[in-house]
Amino acid sequence: MRLREAALLVAAMTLVLAALLVPLARLVQVSAPDRAVGAATDKARNLEFLVATLGRADLDVAVTQANSDVPRYPATVYLPGGVALGAPAPRTPAVELASRGSSFTAAGRGGWEVVAAVAASSYHGAVVVRVFVSDAELTRGVHRSWLILALLGFGALVLSVLAGDRLTRATVRPIRELADVSHRLAAGQLDARSPVHGPAEIQAVAAGLNHLAGRIQDLLRQERESVADLSHQLRTPLTALRLEVDATPGTAAIAEHVVTLEAAVTRVIEQARRTGTPPPAVCDAAEVVAARCAFWHALAEDQRRPSRVAVPGQRLPVGVTETDLRASLDALLGNVFSHTPQGIGYTVSVTARSGGGARVVVEDTGPGFPAIDAVRRGASGAGSTGLGLDIARRTAVASGGSLAIGTGGGGGARVVVEYGPPPDPRT
């Protein structure tokens, strides 16, 4: 914006200065010859008076003195009989014409001649006064005046650009502050606010942005409290269920599931009410995948599902929290158990990802995905909520990875999830 404003200002000032300085430059060029010829004419008139009042000896001294005082316009006085006083110069056609009683200004070789005839009785004939103006005198001072005008115009242009830049900067600064606040809000800094200053229109935008940020903060706070309240309401029946399971013999596995469910509800409450900086997003993908596959293995044995898990013996750090990675794996494995018949096997493999991170592949031998966009949030072809794959996808994307679905080698569903490496602590 500043560059566009500066270019527009330079163009406008250039037109204004051109409209002002070009006529002035032309006026200087035209007036210089008039000034020189006028000065020569005045000198010629003074010599005419001297010719009419002085004798020959005094006239010679007067002409020499006049040439010394104004050397730029050499003067010559032609007396009858071919005698010339003052600056040596040949009798030109203009002098010959003036000797017949004429006074005029004519162009000559190398300049202009101002000639005047004087009728003086003491010289027994016509006396001609000639003052010469060279071509250099006709243009004297023109180039210097042009240079001065050019410098003045350039100076005026620079000052106008500097003044315009200050005005533009005063307008652009609030706009940049608005953009910075909008980026901070997009990054999750909901307490960011823009100072309200600048032109009235920008002040209105800043006030509106601040109001919007405050409103978003209020709505998120209400949503977090609502989720926390709803999750907290689930803890009472879960506690009752756990107590009843504990009192019933032979339900150790069910009790373990209830405890896991209680822990999940607790995490939901903590995440919903968390307003500070989240913990560092990093965990060992190999360890988490191995733990979750071991958890689901018991259910797989109950449903006679053959399973194969391939986890490397080395750490695979990824830029995902352990809680989010566990939720993603549970969503992927939960889909296998929920949407395929009992007895359908599955495979889970973990490998290192090129550039850091990990690559997790979950594949089953079931009927595959329905003919819908299974990754789209809320889309489901089996009567579920349609959130599982979307949860896994958002977790992968947040770490710098991706999620892709397809068909496995046995014709069943195949989900490939790539998790990016953990963030560099130095950045």
TrEMBL record:
Keywords carried by this UniProt record: ATP-binding, Cell membrane, Kinase, Membrane, Nucleotide-binding, Phosphoprotein, Transferase, Transmembrane, Transmembrane helix, Two-component regulatory system
Keyword Metal-binding set for record: no
A Pfam family reported for this protein in Swiss-Prot or TrEMBL: HATPase_c
PANTHER family linked: SENSOR PROTEIN CREC
InterPro entries hit by this protein: 2C_sensor_his_kinase, HAMP_dom, HATPase_C_sf, HATPase_dom, His_kinase_dom, HisK_dim/P_dom, HisK_dim/P_sf
GO cellular component: a single term: plasma membrane
Protein name: histidine kinase
Molecular function, one GO term: ATP binding
Source species of the chain: Rugosimonospora africana
Positions of the HAMP domain: 169-221
Lineage of the organism: Bacteria, Bacillati, Actinomycetota, Actinomycetes, Micromonosporales
Cellular localization per UniProt: Cell membrane
EC number: 2.7.13.3
Membrane disposition: Multi-pass membrane protein
Segments passing through the bilayer: 114-133, 145-164
Reactions this protein catalyses: ATP + protein L-histidine = ADP + protein N-phospho-L-histidine
Superkingdom: Bacteria
Domain Histidine kinase: 229-423
